[in-house]
Every structure is written in C-alpha cells, then in structure tokens.
Amino acid sequence: MEVYEHPTSSPTLQAALKSALPYSINLTYRTQHPNRTPDAHILATFPSSTSSLPSSTHEIPQCWAAAYLDRSMRPETELWIFSTGEQPHHSGSQDFCPGCRKAVLSLLDYMSTVPVPPLHPDNLSAIELAKQHAKDHPTPPPSGNYELSPGTYMRHLLLPKVVTLGACHHAVVQICRQVGVLRNEFPGSDNELNKFLFKISDLPEVRELPEGLRWGEMREQDIDTVKARTSIPRSTKTLLSLKSVGVFEKATDTAVAWTFLGLDGSLTTLYTEEAYRGKGIAKAVAAKIFRQYAPGLAVDGDGNAWSHGDVYLGNVQSESVCRSLGGNAMWRCFWVRIDLERAGTLAMTA
C-alpha cells in the first residue's frame, strides 16, 4: 500500500478526517495546529487532491491510515496515527480488518525511511539525562521496564529510530506489539488512558471564580512552575505555543490553576494547587478553555464540535472532572515508544 505526503491544507485529508470524527480527533487537531516545523510530515495511504475545493469522500478508500510525524519534537510526542479501523462500526468487530492493518504497517514502513533531524537546541539537556540514566541503569530491571524517572522518559533518545507515539488507540498499539516494534522497557506500554470525548454544545457554563482570583493566560514567567508540577517532558517553547487558561491570585499575581489545549487538541496539564482544590476551579478551567478555543476545530458532518482529554486509569480526580463536563470515556489509548529500526518490510508480510 502506497504512502503519500500531504500538505497541511490537503482538502482530501481534511475531508477524510472529518468523515471519521470524533474518532479521528487527535489527528484532526494536530494537522491544524500552527506549531509545525520544517521537519513535519503529514502522511496518508491515499493521495492528496490537486483541487483546492473540498474533496468528496468518494475519493477516499474504505480502509486508510494517516499520521503526523515530526522527529524534531523529541523528547516530546513526535507521532500521531489514525486508521479507519479505530471506528467501532468499521469492521463489525474489535479487530482491525486486513486493509486497515496493512495501512498502519505501510505508514510505519514509510516512516522508517524518514531522516532523523537534529534535536532542537532547547532539548539538548535531555540527552544528558538519557546518558546518565544509561550509566546508572545499563540494562532493564528483571521486570523488563525501567522505573519511572525523568531519565526514563529521555532514555529512548539514545536510539535515534525510537519514536514517541501519542494518544494511540489500543488496537494500533496491539498491532505494533504483534509486529515487534513496540519498546516495552520504556514508559507507556502498560499505562492505559481513557479517551474522554466532549461535545462543545453539552459543556456546562463557566462558573465565576472565588473572591480574590482572576482569569488570565499562562505567561512565560509561569512556565517553570507548570513544568515542575508534571513528570511529562514538555519544552517551554511548546507550552508557549499552546492556547492556555490560568487562574491567578489578584494579590500576588501567582498562578494557582491552569490548563493548556495540547498540540492534538486534548486537555493538557490540567492542574490546581493544593490549597485551591475542592472549589470547582479545575472544572471551570477545563470548561473555559474548551469553550474559548475548541469550537470550529473538530466539527463532524452533523455540525457537532468535539473536544477531548486523556486520563490515566485510576486518576479518579481527573475522571471526575471529565465526567462533570459531560464527557464520556470512549476507548483506551497509550503513549508508547516504537522502534522504526524494526520497520521497513512490515506491510509485505501483513
């Protein structure tokens, strides 16, 4: 199955993604986000239209896959994949049909040939963390998985062909596992998340903040605090490129709660300082960012605008926030590392 490069404005790709909403929501958002480097590749297993007019879905095959790949984003998420096999009605079963499976493997084979650009200068410190982790832990422990630490999240940088694949549907992860490209020793392969979907029209109204607090956007001076509250590696440059909503103390101008709309449109880094929890602020922050920035970005054929969030299983507090927003857990997804060194001829044996 052939793989084609698409421009960001590809009407064929956008028509395909729209027809697959809300299941294609990650890739729909990511292909539209302005944070895009010259090293980004937008790929699909169908060609781009030569017309500037919106393409008919008749030009799109029944089974297809598409991806957004940017290796220069390391150690952050470099890859998002969507395939029609993720739609529950596609094959009538939970397993991917042969056509969708081959489409995913064709993408992996193609991506194994894409050159690896240099790491962005802002992320060079991550390499030192990776080297130190390799020195401290030359081999994985008996469990087969490195214990979580800042170094663990960077360790794969020592292997240029290992890619961080984000918000990946559980069935696509299973395909990666079956063909041997999933790297189990790195974080993610055992950590499931629930994909929550929200209809913008069903979101609650944004409530007023408690006395002494104000709304605002997260500023460069706030980013160090944001990064200190999460173990997930995100650069200052990336965070500043995202739409954000913050809650600030009026007296001190200090951020006490915040969230961002991720590169793939998901609710990202939602956090409330401990002293301000239990006041409904997290729900208000999430509702505000979706209402302010999400409408119009992922609209299906029936006119429904969608937003979404990923919550690790067992994170009761975040699940409660998502459900209070009217969200429903629709499927399981993962953040994993896959090894493109092991790809190249996968589709030939599919």
From TrEMBL:
GO MF: acyltransferase activity, transferring groups other than amino-acyl groups
UniProt domain GCN5-related N-acetyltransferase Rv2170-like: residue ranges: 244-336
InterPro entries: Acyl-CoA_N-acyltransferase (IPR053225), Acyl_CoA_acyltransferase (IPR016181), GCN5-like_dom (IPR013653)
Pfam hit, one: FR47
Protein name stated in the entry: GCN5-related N-acetyltransferase Rv2170-like domain-containing protein
Gene3D superfamilies: 3.40.630.30
